Amino acid sequence: MKPRIPTFDELMNPLLSALRDLGGSGSIDEIYDKVISNERFPEDVVNIIHNPEKSTLTEVAYRLAWARSYLKQFGHLENSKRGVWVLTQQAHDTPTVNPREVVGRVREEYQRNRKTEQLEDGMGEIPEAKELAQESTWVEELHRILTKEISAEQFERLAQRLLRESGFVQVEVTGRTGDGGIDGKGIARLHGFMSFHVIFQCKKYQGSVGAGEIRDFRGAMVGRADKGLFITTGTFTPAAVKEATRDGAPPIDLVDGDQLAQKLKELSLGVRTELVESVAIDSDWFKAI
Asked: Is there a single domain that holds both residue 140 and residue 161?
């Protein structure tokens, strides 16, 4: 039987609850992890990808994005340009919402303003959703290139360049077989004073990396580095995330496909942000000549 995923409106109150648990504000990733934890979603639900052919975005993450959009328009959320989402005073005054009321009011408002077009699942287009669609387009294209058009060796060299551009030094790609999956090593410098040795693994993957692979990687890095870094084009299961931060074990930082895409964009590595010129005609100016 196919697992049931909560609809975007069913995720509204869990999202608000997660933000309260986070102290009233949080990043998209923090909110996602907290909702998954609070609601105890099983892995067969969390691992479902919204569009496996184009992106690593999970279906739960996709529906949470719609929930954020509607709650923002309803007045319960606001967000900064740095991607931090915050509960408004209205949300503090009214901790829970009636999802049907939220959906109805937001759609009515945009119908009045004639800014709505019908989209999939009958959801009206709102600014945040439009931004999500635009964001997904380039991320999906990048994901396709990374998983289908470059080799594993090229992906390792990309990781090497990424680490160098991020401030790492002495970054080497080893790629030795039988070495526990270790693909390279480097030294991370912190503010020019402190440094620590890092071993990394790169995995071109469309699915989810599980806890077993994290344990294998940790076994290979013990005694050889201060930290581990696991980079994938796919995602990590909740069990893998938990294993990476397990108490008493060497820490492993995880970089999934979406985080990788954002970092490549930030560093302009194969991803270029283009500003499109907008030209407007002022008819009144001509008439006043």
From this structure: no
Q: Return the higher-pLDDT residue of 169 and 286.
A: 169
Kindly report the average pLDDT of the chain as a whole number.
83
Phi, psi for 272 (deg, rounded to 5): -120, 130
Residue whose pair of structure tokens reads 């299961």 in the numeric block: 237
Of the residues 107, 122, 144, the one at which a domain ends? 144
* pLDDT number for residue 92: 92
Residue with tokens 């069913």: 10
Please check whether residues 129 and 202 belong to one and the same domain.
Answer: no
The H-assigned helical ranges of the chain are: 12-21, 28-39, 43-46, 59-74, 89-93, 99-112, 127-144, 152-165, 211-221, 238-244, 257-266, 283-287
Q: Quote the domain boundaries for residue 115.
A: 12-144
Q: Looking at per-residue confidence, does 38 or 108 come out higher?
A: 38
Give the chain's domain count. Answer: 2
Given a contact cutoff of 8 angstroms between Cβ atoms, the answer to whether 217 and 201 are in contact is yes
Reported pTM: 0.64
If you count them, how many residues does the chain have?
289
Sign of CA dihedral 55, 61, 63, 67: negative
